[in-house]
Amino acid sequence: MNTINYGRQTVDESDIKAVLDTLTSDYLTQGPQVSLFEQSITKTCSSQHAIAFNSATSALHCACLALDLKPGDTLWTTPITFVASANCARYCGAEVDFVDIDPDTYNLCPSALLKKIQEAEKKGALPKIIVVVHLCGQPCDMKKISKIATAYNIKVIEDASHALGARYQNHPIGDCKYSDITIFSFHPVKIITSAEGGMATTNQIELAKKMRLAASHGITRSSEEMIGKHEEPWFYEQISLGYNYRMSDIHAALGNSQLKRLSSFINERQRIADTYNTELSTLPIKLPLIEPDCLSAYHLYVIRVDKQTRMALYEHLKNNGVLTNVHYIPVHLQPYYKKLGFKKGDYPNAEKYYEEALTLPIYPSLTKEQLNTVIQLIKQVL
Ligand SMILES: *Cc1c(COP(=O)(O)O)cnc(C)c1O
Q1: Residue 59 Cα, ligand 1 centroid: separation in angstroms?
Q2: Which of 210, 309, 341, 376 is the most buried (most CB within 10 A)?
Q3: Closest ligand 1 atom to the C-alpha of 85?
Q4: First vs last C-alpha separation in the chain
């Protein structure tokens, strides 16, 4: 029995050739594929700059560093996300706090944000950064969020790990129209893959420079950035403490090859979502709500059912070779964050969502037959 996962990569002959060509080229890392990938992402996203990383997690870390997040500062994010959206603050020694989700879109709720900010202002405890997450590939209400953040001088990072190719009010996610920095992930289950990899986009040259520096040991070869004057043509300076967070050319070759198929990947995901929307519409299931001004990249297709039905569905699908999943266990309920003082009951919308959510299979190479199998199995339970 072939198992069907909730998500998987779609790799074809052209991807394999691209990787093999790079393996026999002069550069396995720090070569032409990485710069090409960065340029292609700026085109796809209509951003001024793009910086490649070895993961979205390291990109998030460097984004926080570039925005000067330090011990004593606080970063706010949503509890319904992958832990990396919150952990990036902890890497910088900063505190994390959460804003509850909207019960219909499951994204960070702008009115909950405003309320929390007004309370924080009274206590003199405003966050330095808000990380919003375009959950499942559906853009957050960026206009509202940016308006609030700007009014309180708070920086915004878009964690768009799910949302390459998504559009908000007909703008591509990644153009940073309503944020300082946007982050993408190229992990195999995401919209396109470089096996492991991430990217940061921004329109602010200073942030781009800082992120690039942090991704490569804090080392610069640009004479403008160097502290001293050096005759030696080979000279480089380490001007801050950075990391080795670089993407390799082998990974970038795969990313470049995949990026060419972005719009067909999104179309395939849309087709699968449309089929679920139609086929499941008469069942007692809450289907994804997509706002009219959003085009979702449909990284995930999440349905909601009552708690008991969720377990029955999960088990029945699993017993028949369909591995669904739940995205996500609320971050504040992870033992690491509970030790920091968070507890059950802190974010009721997020916790209710978690009790009822189930992620169905959605990826470009999911066949019509496989999709039909999943739908029939769901109908058997409901
Ligand atoms: C996948 C994911 C990440 C981390 O991506 P990596 O490239 O694996 O580091 C961060 N945030 C969200 C929302 C994700 O889904």
Answers
A1: 10
A2: 210
A3: 11
A4: 24
In three-state form (DSSP H/G/I as H, E/B as E, the rest C), the secondary structure along the chain is CCCEECCCCCCCHHHHHHHHHHHCCCCCECCHHHHHHHHHHHHHHCCCEEEEECCHHHHHHHHHHHCCCCCCCEEEECCCCCCHHHHHHHHCCCEEEECCECCCCCCECHHHHHHHHHHHHHCCCCCCEEEEECHHHCCCCHHHHHHHHHHCCCEEEEECCCCCCCEECCEECCCCCCCCEEEEECCCCCCCCCCCCEEEEECCHHHHHHHHHHHECCEECCCCCCCCCCCCCCCCEECCCCCECCCEHHHHHHHHHHHCCHHHHHHHHHHHHHHHHHHCCCCCCECCCCCCCEECCCCCEEEECCHHHHHHHHHHHHHCCEECECCCCCHHHCHHHHHCCCCCCCCHHHHHHHHHEEEECCCCCCCHHHHHHHHHHHHHHC
CA–centroid distance, residue 161 to ligand 1 (Å): 5
pTM recorded for the entire structure: 0.98
Q: Which residue owns the Cα nearest ligand 1 atom 5? A: 56
The closest residue, in CA terms, to atom 10 on ligand 1 is 84
* CA 190 to ligand 1: nearest atom: 1
Q: How many angstroms does the Cα of residue 271 sit away from the middle of ligand 1? A: 24
Distance in Å, CA 78 to ligand 1 centroid: 14
**What is the CB < 6 Å shell around ligand 1?**
55-57, 81-82, 84-85, 133, 159, 161-162, 185, 187, 198
Q: Is the pLDDT of residue 46 over 60?
A: yes
pLDDT at residue 1 tops 80: no
Residue 353 banded pLDDT, cuts 50, 70, 90? very high
Q: Give me ligand 1 centre to Cα 186, in Å.
A: 8
